[in-house]
Amino acid sequence: MTHPETTPYDDDRRAYSREALARLVLSQAAYGLAGSAGELVITRHDAFCGPGGRVSEAAELVASAEWTLVRAVVYERERGSSWEEIAGYLGVDAGEAEERFGTELARWASAFEVPYRLDETGRKRIPQLPTAAYDPDTACRRLDLWAHLRSTIRDRHAVSAGLRMTAPEDGDVPAAEVSDPETESDEMRGWIWRPHLRSFLELLARYNSMWFDETDWETVSLGLETTDDETPDAWYSYPLDSSLHSLNVRLANSLGGNEVSVALTGATSADLRLRIDTLMDAFAARP
Q1: Distance of alpha carbon 102 from the chain centroid
Q2: Which residues contact 202 (CB under 8 A, 6 or more apart)?
Q3: Centroid of chain to Cα 267
Q4: Which of helix, strand or coil describes residue 78?
Q5: What is the pLDDT of residues 156-214, one digit of tens each?
Q6: Which of 75, 124, 190, 274 has the fewest CB atoms inside 10 Å of its own CB, making it the most exposed?
């Protein structure tokens, strides 16, 4: 049985500082708030909404905004903001701010000691960390894509680019490390179950207006045999080039498991990245 102090995403999470994870959780909360607000803009189905229904939705929006505020306070504490600095924006004194948000801060801190607990059967993991902090790579991929589709500057890494990926040294002042969008990689990373791999590659090729046939599959299967996703030099690379996009797919087996790690570059358009993101989510489901 897996010990509840370990998670399948420990290695991924170690690449991020706690400040970065707190910021990512705030981004996730803001994403949820934006979605709720967007739904309330639409009027087409008002005739089918019961009495008081829109007030109910607005009340949920207020609750979502309050939760976003909680995540903002956690982030500000992680980046070194004092209670006095936080309280100044809330119109209260430092003691009141600490009392209001102290419980959630304590819960945040304790979740790093025990990231999840097991349910009563002892088999299902129940994360104690917020989802975005528990599995940050997936959160970055989804939030980057969401922002890319909506940002006027078409920034492919609008969320992940500002995250501090390593913990600061003693005495170092935490600060966001801003990247140049023009030089950033367009790589998309994820994993899928091995039985889904051929379907994933066939659909990916179709999205790029090309065919993935039996010969392609035999070549990939052979190349994948000796791969190891824990060894960067042991990944297999396969091009899917067309007149639309020059895609390069890197693949590696997860040792001891039936998963295949995927790293894909060359998908520069937002619509193609959305399709790829959907494929990764779909094929990460158990076959």
Answers
A1: 26
A2: 212
A3: 18
A4: helix
A5: 788 888 886 665 554 444 444 444 444 456 888 888 999 999 999 999 999 988 999 99
A6: 124
> Which residues, 6 or more positions from 113, have their beta carbon under 8 angstroms from its beta carbon?
5
- The phi-psi region of residue 171 (left if phi > 0; otherwise alpha if psi is between -120 and 50; otherwise beta) is left
What backbone torsions phi and psi does residue 238 show, to the nearest 5 degrees?
A: -135, 125
CA distance 145 to 189: 12
In tens, the pLDDT along 237-255 reads 999 988 888 899 999 998 7
Continuous segment of H or E residues that includes residue 116: strand 116-118
Write phi, then psi, for 218 (nearest 5 degrees): -60, -40
The answer to whether residues 270 and 148 touch, using CB atoms and an 8 Å cutoff, is: yes
- Structure tokens that stand for 246 in this block: 């020059």
Query: What angle in degrees, to the nearest 10, is found between the helix axes of 270-283 and 136-150?
Result: 150
Q: What does the alpha-carbon distance between residue 269 and residue 242 come to, in Å, rounded to a whole number?
A: 14
> In whole angstroms, what is the distance from residue 259 CA to residue 244 CA?
29
Number of Cβ within 10 Å of residue 113's Cβ equals 8
Mention every residue, 6+ apart, whose C-beta is less than 8 A from residue 253. 194, 224, 227, 228, 229, 259, 260, 261
What pTM, to 2 d.p., does this model score? 0.67
Please enumerate, as own/partner, the contacts of 252-256 that have beta carbons within 8 Å and a separation of 24 or more: 252/224, 252/227, 252/228, 253/194, 253/224, 253/227, 253/228, 253/229, 254/191, 254/229, 255/228, 255/229, 255/230
Q: How confident is the model at residue 106 (pLDDT cuts 50, 70, 90)?
A: very high
| Residue 87: both structure tokens together | 């309280």
Q: Give the number of other CB atoms < 10 A from CB of residue 199.
A: 15
Place of tokens 């994820």: 190
**What DSSP letter does each residue of 155-190 carry, written as one string?**
-TTTTGGGS--SPPPTTPPP------TTTS---EEE
